[in-house]
From TrEMBL:
Its main location: membrane. It is a multi-pass membrane protein. InterPro entries: Beta-barrel_TonB_sf (IPR036942), TonB-dep_rcpt-like (IPR039426). This is Iron complex outermembrane receptor protein. It comes from Polymorphobacter multimanifer.
Length: 655
């Protein structure tokens, strides 16, 4: 469940970037162009997020941009400088150079404007997190401005969780001469004494028969997580003539995990007793330099408008990972708090994982009046990975694919537009999960591709329907029976998505979204797995293999949101309802266990008022209204409880 407000990771905006506005006037639902996904400030709503688009994660795939330019993001970008994010898929890729099959995540930082805007927020977020945020723009004459931002969170102050988070950042805008704009930014945030959710594994792999306290910490007090992430860089926009754009971005990202611990409860029996294990990592470090140089030349011939693009992108990544150790705390009831002194872990040596990548691309964007649009591109990708693991031979990997993308859209009428698209990419596969033998290992990037077709239809009552069918293919990376996370075949996602959005009457906003997803595994290991996974002991012994459906995908997902502001949108009050539902998911790689369906309901209101001459808003919301308990799929054979009911309340004042 991704509730309406308060998530630290924002979701996706599929059509347009968040509009610059004072925080007191922000409303995620009235700002959304569709129901696919929108991010604005602390709020998000929609079928998709920056970590889940059509069943995949564009963030994990490494498809990140910042202010439109290639950016190898490590960790999160602090809300002290972050305005929102957009995911570019479908029709939005017409104006997105060199898209990717899993979508492009474009982060927008709070570039200072001309008005000296600012705001301050104080309140409670979900799960009783006390929160304070402040931001302010400062102008220095006509050519320079700076935005400063900061936030602090004290987590779960009711149940005693000692987690803390703080973040600071600054963004500048300088125009030294006409036609040149320089945007530097630097943001960092740190979280410490946090406790990530535990994972439960039952003996029969079905969901646990007992419930746990969803706000309770079951691991030792030392088994916490601590991380500091810093992202910074400079974007330079040069416009020497009206038909030539030169964009340059250079970025630095650093992620330091001072502490990282995972609590696993394994082999849980029918009475709810299981083996408690804590896996701890030594200090982990990842650093990256990345950037892009892009040229765009525009010209017109008759009724045709053309843009020719050339781009050079690259990154240099250096990671020190691995070396984990574990401690067995014995058998106990799955909800018991086990607190023992921290053992003297004998951490192993870490692995050096380095990536060097260069991408050279040329592209074209064309527009034929109001009749049709076309975009296409070709890229040469030079990817090199070097893995130096202790006691293992040095591994050198290379891949140099030539990849293509194209999209064409036709306006059949003033109300109907249709499109088709094809995209190839080289995308990261992410890290191995906590329970894997090769926990946290970073696997090589894999070749992927997507085809899609869809339409946009303007309907009566000021409603718009967006719908598409798609198919995405990627290498299948999954656990084997020795719990090693490795390539095992091919994974495809085929689906149909739809969004109905609009304002059928003044003051009323409606957003309805749905996804039908057919996700499947193919390959030799899948067929062997289907034959081996028969009988009462299926999946409990080595050799069970893979089923035909991947773990953790919902075949049916839906979202509904209604925002009503009485008096034809003029009232100080507004009210919102959000309903989110997902069908059961495969819970084990052999497809013999599934989860249950889930529906969550959020209710909220806003009251707008003045503090002196400054606009202000009071926001109150209840997330997961019914507080219904259910176990959700947290990985292959892994279970975690859903998010409990929580209250969000805060006051934002523009300054």
């Amino acid at each position: 469940m991704m509730p309406l407000a308060g998530r630290a990771l924002a979701a996706a905006l599929l059509v347009a970037s968040p509009a610059a506005a004072q925080r007191a006037g922000e409303n995620i639902l009235t700002s959304a162009a569709d129901a696919f996904g929108t991010s604005l400030g602390r709020d998000n709503f929609g079928l998709y997020t920056t970590t889940s688009v059509r069943g995949f994660s564009p963030t994990q795939a490494g498809n990140n941009r910042i202010l439109g330019l290639y950016f190898d993001q490590l960790g999160g970008v602090t809300r002290g400088i972050r305005q929102g994010a957009s995911v570019k898929v479908g029709l939005s890729t017409l104006a997105t150079p060199f898209p990717a099959p899993t979508g492009i995540v474009d982060t927008q930082v709070r570039v200072p404007g001309e008005l000296g805007l600012g705001s301050t927020t104080i309140g409670l977020q979900e799960n009783w997190k006390a929160n304070y945020e402040i931001e302010k723009e400062l102008r220095f004459g006509e050519r320079a401005a700076i935005t400063f931002g900061g936030l602090a969170e004290y987590r779960n102050i009711v149940n005693g969780d000692p987690g803390r988070l703080w973040g600071v950042g600054a963004t500048g805008r300088f125009r030294p001469v006409a036609g040149v704009e320089i945007i530097p930014f630097l943001g960092t945030f740190s979280r410490y004494k946090e406790f990530s959710g535990a994972r439960w594994f039952t003996r029969d792999r079905e969901q646990p028969r007992q419930q746990v306290d969803r706000n309770r910490i079951i691991g030792p007090t030392w088994a916490d997580d601590g991380e500091t992430s810093t992202n910074g860089g400079v974007v330079t926009r040069i416009r020497p003539t009206s038909d030539l754009d030169i964009d340059i971005g250079l970025f630095r990202a650093v992620q330091i995990r001072q502490s990282s611990n995972s609590t696993l409860v394994r082999d849980i029996d029918a009475e709810g007793f299981g083996q408690r294990i804590v896996i701890s990592d030594p200090r982990q470090l990842r650093t990256s330099w990345s950037g892009e140089l892009r040229l765009a030349r525009r010209f017109v011939t008759g009724n045709l408008a053309h843009t020719v693009l050339a781009s050079v992108r690259g990154r240099e990544v250096d990671a020190r990972i691995g070396g984990n150790a574990r401690v067995d705390l014995g058998r106990s009831f799955l909800n018991d708090r086990i607190d023992v002194p921290r053992p003297a872990f004998a951490f192993g040596p870490t692995t050096s994982d380095k990536v060097s990548q260069r991408i050279y691309g040329v592209g074209y964007q064309g527009k034929w009046g109001t009749i049709a649009e076309l975009a296409a591109g070709v890229q040469y990708n030079d990817y090199r990975k070097r893995i130096d693991a202790p006691g293992q031979p040095l591994v050198l990997l290379e891949d140099k694919p030539v990849q293509f993308n194209g999209i064409a859209a036709v306006n059949v009428s003033s109300k109907l537009a249709v499109y088709g698209a094809f995209t190839q990419g080289l995308e990261e596969t992410g890290a191995a999960p906590p329970e894997a033998v090769n926990r946290n290992d970073l696997l090589p990037a894999q070749r992927t591709q997507q085809v899609e077709a869809g339409l946009r239809l303007r309907l009566p009552a000021n409603l718009t329907l967006n719908t598409a069918v798609f198919k995405i293919e990627k290498p299948l990376i999954a656990l084997d029976d020795q719990l090693f996370f490795r390539p095992r075949g091919t994974l495809f996602h085929k689906g149909w998505e739809a969004s109905l959005a609009g304002n059928p009457m003044p003051g009323l906003t409606i957003l309805v979204g749905g996804l039908l997803l057919d996700a499947g595994n193919t390959g030799e290991e899948v067929n062997v797995g289907q034959f081996a996974c028969q009988g009462p002991s299926a999946g409990l012994v080595p050799g069970c293999g893979l089923g035909r459906r991947p773990v953790g995908r919902s075949p049916v997902s839906g979202r509904l949101a209604v925002n009503w502001r009485p008096d034809q949108g003029k009232s100080r009050w507004s009210f919102d309802l959000v309903v989110e539902g997902n069908s059961p998911q495969q819970a084990t790689r052999d497809n013999l266990v599934t989860s249950v369906a889930g529906v969550d309901i959020d209710l909220g209101m806003r009251y707008r008022f003045k503090v002196g001459e400054n606009a202000a808003v009071f926001r109150l919301a209840v997330n997961d209204l019914t507080n219904a308990y259910r176990w959700t799929v947290a990985g292959d054979g892994a279970w975690a409880p859903n998010t409990p009911r929580s209250v969000l309340a805060f006051v934002t004042v523009d300054i």
